[in-house]
Task: inverse folding
């Protein structure tokens, strides 16, 4: 019998790092270490890290920075002391000049003294808040990936970086929309409140049934499409801006922090 | 009859920039342009800006970044389009190797193509929230500066920058303390909720009647000293870390943004 991510819902992040580091787990992470923050990874040469930080500061909803490592140091000391970002994610993507060149499970061969790692908040944190508020999440019901769309909302550029905002969409029963706004608004460090509610055309989405990333999900009668800023935005900006070298996590193969979702609630 | 800051409580920030730029106003800014965000200014060579940003990201309560300019560009495009940070503050301080070398009213002679300006949130914003919640503010009652203290809470270091957290103190009647926490907690972008409530010795303050900066204020019977992270922290870290060149605002002579305090409320 093969283990599934949900078997590790109550496993501590430090044990999951060890499982991943020793090659015992190479799959996606959703469902593991329930209540702990899962984060997007972006690794860049120091030369590009400044532009990326300014881009994140100017676009905090899609780019909520949780931690930044010192150049060359793979340990995220604020959100996961003891972890090693070169080995403790199940799968990575290596990018050169905006093109995917490798999908390794260990990035030690690529590591350099000038690399800086950024961990960015991810929607799994606010989905916990939605679930606790008894709001159904369609892509979880459908066991598929969340649908994501490139919008006509331009991020504020910074230095050499620019790009459009990418959003994720969840259909919410109309009477529950205000509760969904409040429940996620408590978590500004992990995308926060929605950026748009209702008519997809108003933010440049032509066909809601054809997401740019992830999987399409049905929108039932009486449901409103609700759009949140998405952690794919910074990666999309890096790729669009022709960054010479970058490493990210592979989709769904996130880094699990040892801080909890609840630590990022404002109230 | 001399004009006072309060005469300009209802003046728009863009008119105040013009007054300051043309030499008509060189005094402190508290009380001007009521409801608009007033900000701390830190100007650094690009070479130091990265360390400062990482320091701010790791220490968001004392260092809430509101805007960062592109190198050489004196316009804060996010929070005050049209303003010029070289001329639109009433007084500046120029620092070399941690020492104050000049207090000009115009920094155009010092400006360089590699300078980056940071605007940081300031407690005036959350004081408006306290006043709206009918919570008295002692240093305003006393018409003096807020008392500030160096604590034994160490900021998380970043690159070449380190230093202790500086806090401001306001005595609050005990029954109003929870309301003061909630009222300021709504504003995480401008220091947010207090960092400490009660016994000053627990955060290394030996004599509450002798602040390290600002003026002492009386604490009456039935009042609790409440401590908020203070925007002097990043300046103190810059000075302690022997930064070769920096420009800041002069105390009390803040930059007035054209965004409003209310824009930074989380809920």
Result:
């Amino acid at each position: 019998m093969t283990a599934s991510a949900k078997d590790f819902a109550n496993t501590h992040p430090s044990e999951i790092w060890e499982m991943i580091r020793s090659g015992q787990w190479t799959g996606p992470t959703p469902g593991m270490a329930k209540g702990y923050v899962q984060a997007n990874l972006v690794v860049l040469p120091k030369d590009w890290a400044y532009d990326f930080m300014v881009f994140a500061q100017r676009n905090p909803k899609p780019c909520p920075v949780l931690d930044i490592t010192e150049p060359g140091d793979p340990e995220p000391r604020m959100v996961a002391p003891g972890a090693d970002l070169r080995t403790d994610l199940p799968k990575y993507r290596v990018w050169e000049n905006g093109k995917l060149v490798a999908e390794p499970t260990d990035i030690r061969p690529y590591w350099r003294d000038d690399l800086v790692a950024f961990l960015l908040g991810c929607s799994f944190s606010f989905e916990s808040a939605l679930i606790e508020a008894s709001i159904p999440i369609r892509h979880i019901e459908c066991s598929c990936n969340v649908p994501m769309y490139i919008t006509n909302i331009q991020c504020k550029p910074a230095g050499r970086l620019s790009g459009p905002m990418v959003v994720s969409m969840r259909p919410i029963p109309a009477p529950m929309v205000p509760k969904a706004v409040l429940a996620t608004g408590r978590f500004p460090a992990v995308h926060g409140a929605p950026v748009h509610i209702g008519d997809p055309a108003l933010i440049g989405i032509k066909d809601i049934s054809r997401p740019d990333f992830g999987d399409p999900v049905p929108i039932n009668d009486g449901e409103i499409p609700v759009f949140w800023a998405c952690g794919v935005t910074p990666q999309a900006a890096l790729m669009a801006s022709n960054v010479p070298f970058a490493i990210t996590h592979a989709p769904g193969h996130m880094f699990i922090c040892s801080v909890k979702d609840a630590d990022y609630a404002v109230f």
Remarks:
- The mean pLDDT of chain A is 92.
- Helices of chain A lie at 13-21, 46-58, 123-132, 138-141, 177-185, 232-240.
- The longest helix of chain A spans residues 46-58.
- The CA atoms of residues 157 and 202 of chain A lie 22 Å apart.
